[in-house]
Design brief:
Helices cover 36% and strands 19% of the residues. By secondary structure, the chain is an alpha/beta fold. It folds into three domains: 201 residues, 3-Layer(bba) Sandwich (FAD/NAD(P)-binding domain); 112 residues, no CATH class; 132 residues. Helix 2 runs parallel beside helix 16 and helix 5 packs across helix 9. It starts with a strand and ends with a helix.
């Protein structure tokens, strides 16, 4: 039996660990935080519960596949609820809002509130996204991209479909109203990608929502973490200091306290931008750019705010300028666009009776580009943001209703999660940081070392990291239990 050590108990690490344990490997998951979850953590205080990481569940068949690979039934482990609407979008200064709702005719009715021409274009837009979804997500997302020819094989078809142009440009080809364009291109922002620069392959995030709907797991996404971690040997509060090597192959990991765990295989679910440090290297094989960060507010209120749906987006004026400021220029924005998660809308138990459990996500520059002193910046930004939500988006009385409050800044992302520059979504998903250009699931230089998580192929988000876990576990299955001494030759051949 081979021993696999997984560094990090995020969703990707847990997904890979569960698959490999079911395949007969001895698996140990080592997690630096006090509980499993990584970025998919949970916070509780004074009768309120907040998911502090991903909160929107799509592609339920990926969950079904992951749980089944671990010998479990997802519907026995999780209570999944379909959301309707998927989410609501408000624009500053607009009386109208746009609900994303299941069903083509219903969605066209929503779009028609802004443009009848764009409503008529919806079916054609979805038809254009279908092959991008099938080729770029379902197919490419479930296989590794370890050689340049893997990318060369799919590039002509993606180009023919228009998937390599910018996401905003692709959407604008179909829709004319600026608000509709923003509504159908914002999705990449919440996996760390600027819709004005990322490739249109990320438009598939829209298609998959209408195909398989949007879901919520009672208890929050953390209920998924608990279910995946349940059958595993997860050792929390033990941070890995370095990955040991012998003869060009991994031999184990050393914890910060000095303890050593021997291993035939090591899977790193740590931030891929920092994994080279665990190997004792000064620089990574290839320098990749991290995503922007986020300023998070977790609020427990003594009253509900019914204008908020389970998922709500607020779009401030100068949307393009806002995105540019947080992803490129490094300035904390003055006009705010946010994502708000009100889980108590669907599950009242997530809040104190009569109140709301509200998580607010505001994209901000990471530590490499933006403010370095978040102790000073945080208070002012918090007050300005809440004032904007009251003034511009109708959340009257929000500040005075708060009875429990926590926050998370880029400095917390760096300290608590080991995220380089306090990034929120790992590696920025630009064209030149996707597929083969992204960190490979199997390390090309160190035998027995593999990668998983939002910074690896295929990318961030719950489906992305779980599909990546499937790819990584499949690569381990190809290599083990072949003698470790032969792995170096296999890796060399693969790299070549």
């Amino acid at each position: 039996m081979s021993r696999v050590v997984v560094i990090g108990a995020g969703l990707g690490g847990l997904g890979a660990a569960l698959r490999l344990q079911r395949a007969g490997h001895e698996v140990i998951v080592v997690e630096g935080r006090e509980r499993p979850g990584g970025r998919a953590y949970q916070l509780r205080d004074s009768g309120f519960t907040w998911d502090t990481g991903p909160s929107l569940i799509t592609m339920p068949w990926v969950l079904e596949d992951t749980f089944a690979a671990g010998g479990m039934d997802v519907h026995s482990e999780l209570d999944l609820v379909q959301l309707d609407p998927f989410y609501r979008i408000f624009w500053e200064g607009e009386d109208r809002h746009l609900d994303f709702v299941p069903g083509s005719e219903r969605m066209k009715e929503q779009i028609a509130k802004f443009s009848s021409r764009d409503a008529a274009a919806f079916d054609g837009f979805m038809a254009a996204l279908k092959p991008i979804y099938e080729n770029g997500i379902v197919d490419a997302g479930q296989r590794s991209f370890e050689r340049p020819r893997d990318l060369a094989r799919v590039t002509p078809e993606l180009a023919r479909m228009g998937a390599l142009r910018t996401l905003y440009g692709f959407v604008s080809k179909h829709f004319g109203d600026e608000r509709v364009r923003e509504a159908f291109s914002f999705h990449s922002l919440f996996i760390g990608g600027d819709p004005f620069r990322v490739p249109a392959i990320y438009g598939a995030l829209v298609y998959l929502q209408f195909l398989d709907k949007v879901w919520y797991a009672r208890g929050g996404v953390y209920s998924m973490v608990e279910a995946l971690a349940g059958p595993l040997d997860v050792r929390c509060g033990e941070r890995v200091a370095r990955i040991e090597q012998a003869g060009g192959a991994v031999s184990g990991v050393v914890l910060e306290g000095g303890a050593r765990i021997a291993a035939d295989v090591v899977i790193s679910n740590a931030d891929v931008l920092r994994t080279h440090e665990l190997l004792g290297r000064r620089a990574p094989l290839r320098r990749l750019k991290p995503t922007m960060s986020c300023f998070m507010l977790y609020l427990g209120t003594d009253r509900p705010f019914p204008q908020l749906e389970h998922h709500t987006l607020t779009v401030g004026k100068s949307y393009r300028g806002f995105i540019r400021s947080v992803t490129r220029t490094g300035r904390v924005p003055q006009s705010f666009s946010t994502y708000i998660h009100a889980a108590s809308r669907t599950e009242p138990a997530m809040a104190r009776p009569g109140g709301d459990s509200i998580a607010i996500l505001l994209p901000v520059p990471n530590l490499a580009n933006g403010p370095a002193d978040w102790d000073e910046t945080s208070d002012e930004l918090r007050d300005t943001l809440l004032e904007s939500l009251e003034r511009d988006f109708g959340l009257d009385g929000l500040r005075e209703s708060i009875v429990a409050e926590h926050r998370m800044t880029p400095a917390d992302f760096e300290r608590d999660l080991g995220a380089v520059a306090g990034n929120a979504f790992a590696t920025e998903p630009t064209l030149h940081q996707s597929a083969w250009f992204r960190t490979h699931n199997r390390d090309a230089r160190v035998s027995g070392l593999y990668h998983v998580g939002g910074g690896t192929h295929p990318g961030a988000g719950i489906p992305g990291v779980l599909l990546g876990a499937k790819v990584t576990a499949g690569l381990v299955a190809e290599d083990v239990p072949r003698p470790v001494a032969t792995l170096g030759r296999a890796r060399t051949a693969a790299a070549r």
